[in-house]
Amino acid sequence: MTLIDKIAWLHLHEGRLLSTRSHGKDRYYIPGGKREAGETDEQTLLREIREELTVQLEPASLVYQGTFEAPAHGHPAGIRVQMTCYSAQYSGELQPAAEIAEIVWLTYQHRPLVSAVDQLIFDWLRERQLLAD
Fold first, then answer.
1. Which residues contact 73 (CB under 8 A, 6 or more apart)?
2. DSSP β-bridge partners for residue 86
3. How far is 61 from 131, CA to CA, in rounded Å?
4. What pLDDT score was predicted for residue 27?
5. How confident is the model at residue 76 (pLDDT cuts 50, 70, 90)?
6. pLDDT at position 96
7. How far are the Cα atoms of 23, 46, 62, 103 from residue 52, in angstroms, in the given order?
8. CA–CA dist 58, 90 (Å, integer)
9. Residue 15 sits in which domain range?
């Protein structure tokens, strides 16, 4: 089994979760990305969010939320993604950059539009009454 190691930013506002869609993709994804060699979770998340959304996460506000694992969307069977999630405050204005085509705010009704690992996170957020129906 191959495991893709990703770090993600859970940012909720009024019961909606910030999500993104990359150019040429058919699913929405929670912002974040793959760790580069030698990077910590914090370094990965700060870099990825700055590159994708043009905002600066505040390192002192990072809070671990959970780690989720599921089959990787768009990959052959046997490839799984492990998503380690954090919440954090930020400064700046959210704007799509790099490979990001659009920024959206999703509720639980949008669950079918996200990847398998994101669906687990949607369920987890809903169980905690953090994600609106």
1. 27, 81, 115, 116, 117
2. 9, 64
3. 21
4. 92
5. confident
6. 96
7. 12, 10, 18, 10
8. 5
9. 2-127
- Is pTM beyond 0.85 here? yes
Distance CA 91, CA 98 (A): 19
Whether the CB-CB separation of 50 and 33 falls below 8 Å is answered with no
Q: How far apart are CA 125 and CA 128, in angstroms?
A: 5
pLDDT for the residue numbered 1: 75
Long-range contacts, stretch 123-126, CB < 8 angstroms, 24+ apart: 124/66, 124/68, 125/10, 125/12, 125/17
**Which residues are bridge partners to 131 per DSSP?**
none
48: CATH: 3.90.79.10
Q: How many domains does the chain have?
A: 1
CB atoms near residue 83 (< 10 Å): 23
| Residue 46 in domain | yes
How many other CB atoms are found less than 10 A from the CB of residue 117? 24
- Measured CA distances, 87 to 46, 58, 90, 110 (Å): 12, 10, 10, 20
CA pair distance 45, 62, nearest whole angstrom: 10
